Amino acid sequence: ARRGESESERDGMADEFVPQDDMLRLAELRFRAVSAEGMEAKGAVDTLKRELSERSALHWMQLASAQLDCELMSEAEVAEMRRAIEDELKKLDAKVTDAEENLGESEVRDALEKRLDFFLRIGDREQAVAAYERTLAATVGVGQKLDLVLHMIRFGLALRDFAFTSKYITIAKEMVEKGGDWERRNRLRVYEATHLMAVRQFKPASALFLEALATFSASELFDYKQFVRYTVLICMHTVDRPTLKEKVSNAPEVLSVILEMPTMRAFVEALVKCDYRTYMAQLPDVLQAVSKEYYLSTHTMFIGRELRVAAYSQFLASYLSVKLEAMGVAFGVGSEFLDAELTRFIAAGRLSCKIDKVNGVVETARPEARHSIYESTIKQGDILLNRVQKLSRVIDI
User: Fold this and answer.
1) What is the predicted pLDDT for the residue at 119?
2) How far apart are CA 149 and CA 137, in angstroms?
3) Distance of CA 97 to the CA centre of its chain
C-alpha cells in the first residue's frame, strides 16, 4: 500500500481507502489452501499457485509448498522463476546505481524502496531485511521511515513470524514517540492490536481495538467490516457488560456495519441482553467462523472457553445461589453438561462459585473487596522487597 507517493501526498490520504496489502491477501489465501477441504481447497491452491507464479514469488511459493506438504512447482518452473528473479534484480540494482551516480537523494531512496518492495513481493526474508536497513538509512522523514517499518510489520504478519513482527512494532512505537503523525499513530495502534490478537494477548488487544474504533484507517491490513468483527469478538470476553454495551454494542461505528453480520449481531446482543439461550445457540456458528480466520484459527478452542466463561460469570453475578437445573434451562443446556462445565472452570479458578451436588445448587462465592485489597497489597509488597534486595546486592558490590 501507498507505494511511490511523497510523504506530503501520503499525509493527505488519511481518509482515502487503501486496499489490503498483497502479502496479507495472499497469506490469507495460503491459509485457506491449507485449512480448507475438497473443492474449496483445490480452488484456493490453484489460485494461490497462479498468483504467486505471476509475481515470481519463489520464497512464498516454497513456504506454501512446505505448509501444504506438496511441491507446487516442478524443477524446471523453479529454475525459470529464479532466472526471472535474477533479471528483475539486475534491473533494480542498475536503477539504484544510476540514481546514486546521476540523481538526487530522493531518487536514490525511491530506487532502494522499489528494491525492498521486490524482496517483500517474492518473500525473501534475509534480502528484505538487508534492503530495509539500506532504504531506512537513505530515508530522512520520520513519516517515511515509519511507513517502511509498517511494511515490515505486514511482512511479519504474512510470514506468521510473531517475534519478527514484535521487533518491528517496538521500532515503530519508538519512532512514533519521536514525532509520528496522527494518522500513522492510529494505524500503528491497529497493527499492534492485530499482533496481540494473533498471539492470544486478547485483553490488551481489546483496549487498542476500542481506541481505534472511531479512527480506523489501516485498511491495508483488513477492511472496516473485518475490523469491527474482531473488535466485537475480542471485547465480548475481555470487557465487562457495561463497557460492552456502551463502547461496542451501542457504538455508532459498530452499528454502521454489524447489520451485515447477522450472526455476530445476534451473538453480542444476546450477551448484552442476558439472553443466554440464544447466546449458546449462536456460539457454534461463531466458533465455526473463528476457525476460518487467519489470525484466530489456532485460538478457536480458547476463545470458545472464554466466551462461555464470560456468559457464566455474567449470569452468576446476579445470584447468591441458583438451581443447577434452572441455570441449564436459561442456557438451553442439560444439567449434566452444565455441571461438568462449571466444575472444570471452578477447578481452573475461572469462576468464583461452588456446586452443592446434594441439593443441585450453584452457590456464588464473591470475595470481599477488603480481602482483595489486602491480597494485592501483600503481592505488591513482596515485589517491592525483591527489588530492594536486588538493589542492595548491587550497591554492596
Assistant:
1) 96
2) 12
3) 39
Element (H, E) at 86: helix 75-102
Contact 7, 148 (CB under 8 A): no
Q: Which of 327, 353, 349 is nearest to 338 (CA)?
A: 327
Phi, psi dihedrals of residue 354, rounded to the nearest 5°: -140, 155
pLDDT score of 84: 95
Those residues with Cβ within 8 angstroms of residue 308's Cβ, 6 or more apart along the chain or in another chain: 283, 341, 345
The backbone torsions φ and ψ at residue 355, rounded to the nearest 5 degrees and listed phi first, read -110, 125
pLDDT in tens, 233-272: 999 999 999 999 999 999 999 999 999 999 999 999 999 9
The DSSP element (H or E) to which 322 belongs, if any, is strand 321-323
Cell (9 digits) for 392: 542492595
Residue 232 or 141, more confident: 232
Q: How far apart are CA 30 and CA 45, in angstroms?
A: 7
Percent of the chain topping pLDDT 90: 75
Would you list the DSSP string of 253-319? Answer: HHHHHHTT-HHHHHHHHHHHTT-HHHHHHHHHHHHHHHTT-TTTGGGHHHHHHHHHHHHHHHHHTT-
User: Among residues 210, 246, 250, 205, which one has the least CA distance to residue 228?
Assistant: 210
Q: CA 10, CA 144: separation in Å to the nearest integer?
A: 9
Tell me the whole-structure pTM to 2 decimals: 0.85
Rounded CA separation 156/195 (Å): 10
> Collapsing DSSP states into helix, strand and coil, what is residue 349?
coil
Res 1 pLDDT > 50? no
Parallel, antiparallel, or unpaired: how do β-strands 321-323 and 353-356 relate?
Answer: unpaired
